[in-house]
Specification:
Helix content: 10-25%
Largest sheet: 6 strands, antiparallel
CATH architecture: Roll
Number of helices: 3
Oligomer: single chain
Order of helices and strands: HHEEHEEEE
Distance between the termini: 33 Å
């Protein structure tokens, strides 16, 4: 992956819904992506823990961008399916996610994500693991008519 593609992906990661949530790209390499989100009060559930929907969205979106590193601008990535296991309550100052593609197919790209809860001192606890199945689709097939 060249520097221009890496810069594009790092910038493209945060838009629309993910920008609203505060997601930030941290690193991108071929088949890998890392991200974070600060745990603001709006992202917590009633007991002060990260909402499961936020954890799942971070795992899914980061896996999608890990897959996106493997295709060119003529393709996009869509999630076909994902499964997530919540291992510990996600409490802390932020979430950190690392995702990697585990098999590089022409159309289907399975990936795995790990999400850690990060406290104010930077200590991490593994909070969730996800398996995400992603599909490569032609960019042109996603064009919406005005």
């Amino acid at each position: 992956m060249d520097q221009a593609r890496r810069a594009f992906l790092m910038n493209d990661f945060r838009q629309a819904f993910t920008a609203h949530l505060g997601f930030e790209a941290l690193d991108a390499a071929e088949g890998h992506f890392a991200s974070t989100v600060a745990l603001t009060p709006a992202l917590l559930q009633q007991d002060g823990l990260a909402h499961a929907g936020v954890v799942a969205t971070l795992a899914d979106h980061t896996a999608g961008y890990a897959a996106y590193t493997l295709v060119g601008p003529e393709s996009r990535i869509l999630t076909v399916e994902f499964k997530i296991n919540f291992l510990k309550p996600a409490a802390g100052a932020a979430l950190y996610c690392q995702a990697q593609v585990i098999s590089r197919g022409r159309t289907i790209l399975p990936a795995e994500s790990a999400v850690w809860a990060v406290n104010a001192d930077g200590d991490r606890k593994l909070a969730a693991k996800a398996m995400v199945t992603l599909m490569v689709v032609p960019t042109e097939s996603l064009r919406r008519e005005s």
